[in-house]
């Protein structure tokens, strides 16, 4: 179970909390994930930020923001706009695979769109049964579907039949909608329908993003599906190497999906794999690169907000990010974004060196 005191987030959004720079607590277990995935985060982890984070390294695969499917087959241009990596072999510019995620409740329509994704060269198709956003749930999408394991099975099975056998189909669920009563029913529904991978977020829809995440409940799913041809991936409230270690130990999983923790600390995927993780000097140059990508496609009035949104998360890990965030806090003028960001980075680099919180790499498993 995750420790208290982690930031909360609004539905589908980034955590909103003051920065935290305290050293990580002492390690309590020794394990490394064999697979690290970058989570889909609607309104946060778009293809520009996937580009930045995959440049840092340590991520085995990304999952796109959800692509909403209602009652029609989407044209290719919509998929390419939401997931431009499709034009690069379903990979980020750094070469990290990206799996397309669909969200909806109509099995036949989802199957048609999954087939279209396969034609466009998608690395795989992921199905969203975990989004807690009220606007999504009101339109019968995301975590509300966990009240209907039969429908979950029908959706996964229809998509599995619609795409080539070699194309992976995966799903993401929460522990449940209102409670955990149907957790194992939903897990079996996904597995029985032929999915190769199941990501389990360790909270119900009603629990949202409030700490803690119940990693031991993910272990129930792993145990229930033991011996099946499906991999269970643990997700939720992993902000540090120590969190990762305890999540793996409590869930019994060998794979992690990182979301807000990786946005806040782009080196976290490397660190949890026992590799050398970058410091602020390596992360800082990504901010102007990100601002340039954002400025090329986002409406002018939203550009500064996207950069500040990432900085707001980075200041959890890096004291220098706090100074840059403060310098841009009131900035609204699009033309001033890049000069102000560059000046703030120079000033932060010239400030007395701050002590970064300790980040202990995971030890080799015994």
What secondary-structure arrangement, pairings included, does this model have?
Layout: E1 35-38, H1 47-56, E2 61-68, H2 76-82, E3 98-103, H3 107-119, E4 125-129, H4 134-138, H5 149-162, E5 169-174, H6 183-192, E6 197-201, H7 215-224, E7 231-235, H8 241-251, E8 255-258, H9 260-264, H10 268-272, H11 280-283, H12 286-297, H13 300-314, H14 319-328, H15 337-350
Helix pairs in contact: 3-5, 5-6, 7-8, 12-13, 12-15, 13-14, 14-15
Account of the 3D structure:
The protein has 366 residues and is an alpha/beta fold. The protein has two domains: 35-277, Alpha-Beta Barrel (TIM Barrel), CATH 3.20.20.70; 281-350, Bacteriocin As-48, Chain A. 40% of the residues lie in helices and 12% in strands. The protein has helices at 47-56, 76-82, 107-119, 134-138, 149-162, 183-192, 215-224, 241-251, 260-264, 268-272, 280-283, 286-297, 300-314, 319-328, 337-350; strands at 35-38, 61-68, 98-103, 125-129, 169-174, 197-201, 231-235, 255-258. The protein has an eight-stranded parallel β-barrel with strand order 1-2-3-4-5-6-7-8, surrounded by six helices. Strand 1, helix 1 (47-56) and strand 2 (61-68) form a beta-alpha-beta unit. The protein is globular, with a radius of gyration of 20 Å. The two termini are 22 Å apart. Mean pLDDT is 89; it is low at 1-30.
Uncertain spans, ≥5 residues at pLDDT below 50?
Answer: 1-30
Query: What is the overall pLDDT average?
Result: 89
Q: Could you say which overall geometry the principal axes of the C-alpha atoms support?
A: globular
SSE string: EHEHEHEHHEHEHEHEHHHHHHH
The CATH homologous superfamily name of the largest domain equals Aldolase class I
Q: Can you count the beta strands?
A: 8
CATH class of the largest domain: Alpha Beta
Span from first to last CA? 22 Å
Instruction: Provide the structure class.
Output: alpha/beta
Sheet with most strands = 8 strands, parallel, barrel
Helical fraction: 25-40%
